[in-house]
């Protein structure tokens, strides 16, 4: 049996549906849960901005992919 890495994020492609969204496009999470997630994300980003933690490699990969797509769109 293969162990899961708790720090690894699931890999999604652009064609897969977004987890947590109903087919109607409305969020499946309550406002309370959304607020808690938002608060934790803000705290995490604040520690990154202050240099208390290094930027995760996954974030750098995502930013690089977005930059690449942006350059490709500008060239066409």
From TrEMBL:
Residues 1-14, 23-33 have a biased composition (Polar residues). The lineage of its organism: Bacteria, Pseudomonadati, Pseudomonadota, Alphaproteobacteria, Hyphomicrobiales. It comes from the Bacteria. Transmembrane segments: none annotated. Residues 1-33 are annotated as: Disordered. Pfam families: NepR. Residues 34-68 form the Anti-sigma factor NepR domain. This is Anti-sigma factor NepR domain-containing protein.
């Amino acid at each position: 049996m293969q162990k899961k890495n708790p720090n690894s994020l699931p890999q999604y492609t652009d064609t897969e549906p977004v987890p947590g969204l109903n087919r109607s496009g409305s969020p499946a999470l309550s406002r309370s849960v959304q607020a808690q997630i938002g608060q934790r994300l803000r705290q995490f980003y604040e520690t990154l901005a202050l240099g208390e933690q290094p930027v995760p490699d996954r974030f750098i990969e995502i930013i690089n992919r977005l930059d690449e797509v942006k350059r490709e769109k500008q060239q066409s």
